[in-house]
Write a structure and sequence with these properties.
2 domains, alpha+beta, 210 residues, Gyrase A, domain 2, 15% strand
C-alpha cells in the first residue's frame, strides 16, 4: 500500500478571494457620482420650474379677471347708452308735442325748455338754489325764483348764468330781494334771501315750464 502526500499549502489549493478590482470600483464610483449629479440637477430644475408654473397660473387668472371686468364694463356702457338714447327720444317727442301746441311761429323763436334746465344745472351754485322758473310762450320773457344763503351770491350767479348760450344777451332788469327769517334768526345770522329775477318786456304773459 503506497502513500501519496498532497501539499495543501500550494497556491492552487488555497481559498481564492473573490473581490472587486480597482478599475471596476472606479467605474462604479464614477457612475454613482454621475447619477447623483443628474438627480441633483433634476431636482433643482423642478424646484425652479414650480414657481414659474405658479406665476403663469396667477397671470392667467388675473388676465381672466380683467377680461371679465372689461366685458361687464362694456355691458354697462351699452346699457347707459341705451338709456340715454331713450331719454333723448322722449325729449324729442315732448319737444314735438310742445311745438305743435305753440304753433309754427312760436316754435321757431322759442328755445326748448330742456335748454333752460340744462343751463341752470350747469351753473348750479353752492350758496343758492332755484325754487321756480317760468318762460313766456315766445321765449322772450322769463322769471327766475330762488333762495340764497347770502344775498351777495345772487349777482355772481346771474353773471355766470349769462355765460350760457340760452341766457346770453339777456338783461335781468327786475330783481326783487327779500329776507326770510324770524327776528331771532336775523339776530343769530341764520337768514335766507329770497329773490325773483325777471327778464324781458314787463307785463308779458309767462308760462310755467314743466
Amino acid at each position: 500500500m503506497s502513500r501519496q502526500q498532497i501539499n495543501l499549502y500550494r497556491g492552487a489549493f488555497r481559498p481564492q478571494r473573490q473581490g472587486v478590482g480597482l478599475d471596476r470600483a472606479l467605474w462604479i464610483w464614477a457612475a454613482t457620482a454621475v447619477l447623483l449629479l443628474g438627480l441633483g440637477s433634476w431636482l433643482a430644475w423642478t424646484q425652479r420650474g414650480l414657481p414659474t408654473s405658479q406665476d403663469d397660473a396667477l397671470r392667467s387668472t388675473q388676465a381672466a379677471q380683467i377680461q371679465a371686468l372689461k366685458s361687464e364694463l362694456e355691458q354697462r356702457r351699452r346699457g347707459v347708452d341705451a338709456e340715454l338714447s331713450r331719454v333723448r327720444a322722449i325729449e324729442q317727442a315732448i319737444a314735438k308735442v310742445q311745438a305743435s301746441l305753440r304753433g309754427p311761429a312760436e316754435s321757431a323763436s322759442a328755445p326748448a325748455y330742456s335748454a333752460y334746465f340744462e343751463a341752470l344745472a350747469n351753473q348750479a351754485h353752492g350758496a343758492l338754489w332755484i325754487t321756480g322758473f317760468s318762460v313766456s310762450p315766445d321765449g322772450q320773457s322769463l322769471e327766475l325764483r330762488g333762495r340764497a344763503l347770502d344775498a351777495a351770491a345772487v349777482p355772481d350767479y346771474l353773471a355766470r348764468l349769462n355765460a350760457e348760450p340760452v341766457f346770453r344777451g339777456r338783461q335781468f332788469a327786475q330783481l326783487n330781494v327779500t329776507t326770510v327769517g324770524s327776528d331771532g334768526a336775523v339776530e343769530a345770522g341764520a337768514v335766507l334771501t329770497e329773490f325773483v329775477v325777471r327778464s324781458g318786456p314787463p307785463g308779458t304773459e309767462t308760462k310755467e315750464a314743466r
